[in-house]
Every structure is written in C-alpha cells, then in structure tokens.
Design a protein that fits this description.
The chain is α+β, with helices and mostly antiparallel strands. It contains 6 helices and 12 strands.
C-alpha cells in the first residue's frame, strides 16, 4: 500500500541548533520575578524551542545600546520582534550622571555601594545590572498603571527585553522628529500630559523626559528610557527633576505653536504627588 509520507526524516526540536547570530530563547533562564506583568500579551513568545536572532543595532548610547532581535519558534508562525536594551560593561559604560537619580535608593550589599561609588570595574558591572533592573521594575509599574510605556518582557543580568515600538523592523519616530498638524499636536500634548501626571500619581518623575524619549506610533505617544525614574519624596532632587520634565516638554510644544504653561503643568503634577 502506497503512502504520501515523505521518506526523509522531519527534524525535531532536539535536532535543531541555533545558527550564526542566534541563541536559544533566554525566557526559561529567567525566574518569574524577572518576567513582565501577567497576563502576558499574546505576542510574547514563551515556547521552549524558540530562538533569539540578532537583527542589528537600533540605537547606541553612553550607558546602553538597543538591539533588535526576533524571538521565534522554527517551523511555526510564533514569532515577535523585541528591543534588547543592553547596559554596557565595565570597559565602556558611563554612569557618571546617575548620582542625582540614585539618591534615596540603597543597595542591599555595602560592598556594592562602595564599589559603585569608587567607579571600579566591579562597581560599573553592578551599576549596569542595577540600571537594567531599575528600568524593568519601572516599566512593570507604569505598564500596570496603564501608562503608555513598552511592555517589559524580561530582564536578565544587564539585558532588558521589551516590546519593540515600530512597524516591522523600523522604529517609531521620536516626538522631536514628528511633523504634525495643530490638532495632532494638541492630541500629542494631551497624551504627554497624561503620561507625566501618571508618573506623578505613582509618586515619581521620569527625570529626563523630553521629545527625544517619547515615541509616536500610530498616533500613540509612548514614553521610553525609564532607568532613572525617581521617587520624588525620597530623592532630594525629585521636585527639581519633575519641574525639568515639565519645562522640557512644554518648551517643545510651545515651539510647535501650541500654547501650554510649564509652571501650570508642574503645579498640576505636584498636586498629583500629594
């Protein structure tokens, strides 16, 4: 009796190995506390047989570089594009500006605190991991509060994986790059105000909010770069950082011809704090 089954064997997951520029998915090397808030979005790939494939650099910076990776299950339609933010190691990182944001936060081990203060190689490694975890925790908190931030998929060591905001492999433009009509600008301001007041309602300030770390995707404004999120009450610089956020965003909107008052926005944010 004839059969339509092919004579050659079909590869199984046990026979597959990552190729050049690939690794096994790191999802299972993380513990639940290092994964994003539940319920996981449908696009998050949690399969044991998934590969992470490097697709290139999205953005370089002093403290971290952002890479694009595809997490996919070979032979299936299960795949997603992720942003991999990798905080730099002791040879190339630059954490000099972190002190004003770190006040009010302590580390569990005094050795780590001293090493970071000295700026030793070990201290810089500790700082890189601490900032990756700080951004992951900030994203988790704000995502659960309904603030427009990328969904944090997982954190492992100095690497933070999160939702890629963009189309295909093209990142969404920054607010500073957008050319929009007056009604669109008004809508963008309403969204930025909601983000800034949402941070304040959580007792925090972004600390570095500007049109350069606000993305616009399909008309939605998304805040990025949250490692320095500060708790205003415990950080002596908290109020001034919150005020700076208000000034930075309002100055940009005023240059676009939109009438807004930074001091009025700041007063509104302070009211949300207390």
């Amino acid at each position: 009796m004839s059969s339509d089954i092919p004579a050659f064997p079909v590869p199984s997951f046990s026979e597959l190995e990552p190729g050049d520029g690939q690794r096994w998915s790191t999802w299972f090397s993380t513990v639940p506390s290092q994964r994003g808030p539940r319920p996981f979005p449908d696009w998050v790939v949690t399969d044991a047989g998934a590969f992470d494939t490097e697709l290139g650099v999205v953005k370089g910076g002093k403290e971290a570089d952002v890479f694009l990776i595809e997490r996919a299950v070979p032979g299936s339609a299960r795949s997603s594009i992720l942003a991999a933010k990798r905080y730099r190691g002791p040879e190339t990182s630059d954490f000099h500006r972190s002190s004003q944001y770190q006040e009010g936060h302590g580390m569990r081990r005094s050795r780590d605190t001293r090493a970071v203060a000295r700026g030793s190689a070990y201290g810089r490694s500790v700082a890189a991991g601490a900032w990756a975890n700080a951004e992951f925790e900030a994203l988790c908190t704000m995502y659960e509060r309904g603030i427009a931030v990328p969904y944090p998929v997982q954190v492992s060591g100095t690497e933070l994986l999160m939702e890629f905001v963009g189309d295909g492999m093209t990142a969404a433009p920054r607010l500073a790059q957008v050319r929009a009509s007056a009604p669109q600008i008004a809508d963008y301001f309403a969204q930025v105000r909601h983000i800034l007041l949402g941070f304040a309602r959580a007792g925090t300030a972004h600390g570095d909010l500007s049109p350069y770390n606000l993305l616009v995707h399909d008309g939605r404004v998304v805040a990025i770069d949250l490692p320095q999120l500060v708790e205003v009450a415990s950080n002596p610089n908290g109020i001034s950082l919150l005020q700076r956020d208000c000034v930075n965003v309002c100055n940009w909107f005023v240059r676009q011809g939109f009438d807004c008052d930074a001091e009025a926005l700041f007063a509104e944010a302070v009211g949300e704090l207390y």
